[in-house]
Amino acid sequence: MRVLVVEDEQLLADAVATGLRREAMAVDVVYDGAAALERIGVNDYDVVVLDRDLPRVHGDDVCRRIVELGMPTRVLMLTASGDVSDRVEGLEIGADDYLPKPFAFSELTARVRALGRRTSMPLPPVLERAGIKLDPNRREVFRDGKEVQLAPKEFAVLEVLMRSEGAVVSAEQLLEKAWDENTDPFTNVVRVTVMTLRRKLGEPPVIVTVPGSGYRI
């Protein structure tokens, strides 16, 4: 899942991003509304975690722009005010969910994951294919009933492949969904991660390499 965190309190923004990365999400971070508009014009995000009171361009205007563009991106709006009128106003602007500060990180993560599921075709909370069972909420993976321990990036790549339901996923698509914008697109990080993931999942191999196209399960 690709997430953009937009928050002018840099310590909070960086802490949220670090936490979401530990949950196997690819996260980019910006600290003002103008930078957010630049990012959404370049990258495809599943979810934008958007502070409302932003410098340069207000968070409300960022949200309106996402709606105007007809993007499938879901918006989780953050604000220091938890008044009902503020929540209603944020949702009317086009936000998909609303979370007042201060918030529990576990709730933020659950809401981001719930919104992420709404950017694509509905899928069950637990993904199952080829003897693999992946639970995004619990961060657990089992193959034939045996738990498999994966690093966050390995988990993220497997989740993308599982959600594709047998379709081929290119290396570029994996890079876009599982890594943030600071990753060098010319590295072999995708190939190495897939190799490690394939080894951890064991025999017989379930990740198939489609020459010149990508990978599928």
From TrEMBL:
Keywords, ordered alphabetically: DNA-binding, Phosphoprotein
Response regulatory domain boundaries: 2-116
Domain OmpR/PhoB-type: 124-217
Gene3D superfamilies associated with the record: 3.40.50.2300, 6.10.250.690, Winged helix-like DNA-binding domain superfamily/Winged helix DNA-binding domain
Regions recorded as binding DNA: 124-217
Post-translational modification 4-aspartylphosphate, affected residues: D51
Coiled-coil residue spans: none
InterPro entries: CheY-like_superfamily, OmpR/PhoB-type_DNA-bd, Sig_transdc_resp-reg_receiver, WalR-like, WH-like_DNA-bd_sf
Keyword DNA-binding: yes
Phosphoprotein keyword on record: yes
Pfam family, one: Trans_reg_C
Name this polypeptide is given: Response regulator transcription factor
